[in-house]
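pinging the channel bc i need a second pair of eyes. not urgent but kinda urgent?? the chain im working w is below, pasted from the shared doc
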Amino acid sequence: MSKKNFDKMMTYLDEQMKRLPNLASKYMGLTMPFPQSTTLRNRVMETIESLVQYDTDVCIAAHFNKDEAGEIEYKEIIFLGNDYPHLKKIIDFMNGQEINLSIKNTCILYREFTTDLNVHLKGTHSTITSLNDLFARVEIHMDTMEVGMGYEYENKQGKTDIIHYCCYKDDDEGKELGYQLYIKSLDYYAKKLLADGFILGYPAVDSTIKIIDASCTMCFYRDYYYITGAHISLKRAMEQAHWRLCEPWMEISMTCKKPYFEGNALFREIDCLHILEEKEDCRISFRSRLSAVIDVLEVFYSNNKDISDFHMKMNSYVPIEEDTQLTDKFKVIYDVQEWKDELNG
């Protein structure tokens, strides 16, 4: 491997790493129908680009369907924010640009989760051609992190002699550069695969991928083989896990007027309601699936007459209810300009 190609590929991976979405602590989004006319779509895309420059915490995503021929039909654009007040700021910006968003179209950022956390998962990838052969393998261990932290990568295998050539076996410099490129590729694709998900494309929840063992063998050194080997072998290892969709489990607290509390049917349906103080004003707290309260959040946040000191934070994730039907695929848009080029292509 030439040092020039090595530097080029490492720079490429660094640039791709920077594009990974910051999904830590995000649990809600806003939806708008995907624009059908080219004129409106381009105007929406230009406004989204301005929004992302104005507010770097915003993430853009989409719901879509894909037919058997691979054609994609986009259904909705999704604006992901850090919390409910953040979504209101997104609405204000977009409405100021004459793009209508409504808090009534709030949606849940589902996550993908696996309980296979105490097993080692293995994946391999091989390519045999007339010019070169590739065999890459990886063994990983998955673990959880604190809720809201996103995803991480950790190299625990410790060995540096994991690159092998059938030809030019004594090329120690090439093996060293290959080692660095392969480890960097494992780092990037561990995080990218977690961000892209495995079922419907929702990001994996608060996970760490630990590389326990890895190796890469080829006849002649090819920089792009390291990247391909890392990507496919990691994907096949992660696909061995039993992935499930889950939703946020929220901790909510508020102070509300006693007549409002006693007359609101929602509070009578909550199993884990705690009345911390019951006087003229009631101080209460409870935990709930986000899906159970998402439709009343606007009332909780805007009813200043009956409700005060309202707080909500994410506590953990729980599997979605069996009767919850999710069919549309989901993906985070890493680069709005590239998405616009794809749509206009």
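so The chain has a mean pLDDT of 90. and The radius of gyration is 24 Å. — does that match what u expected or am i reading it wrong
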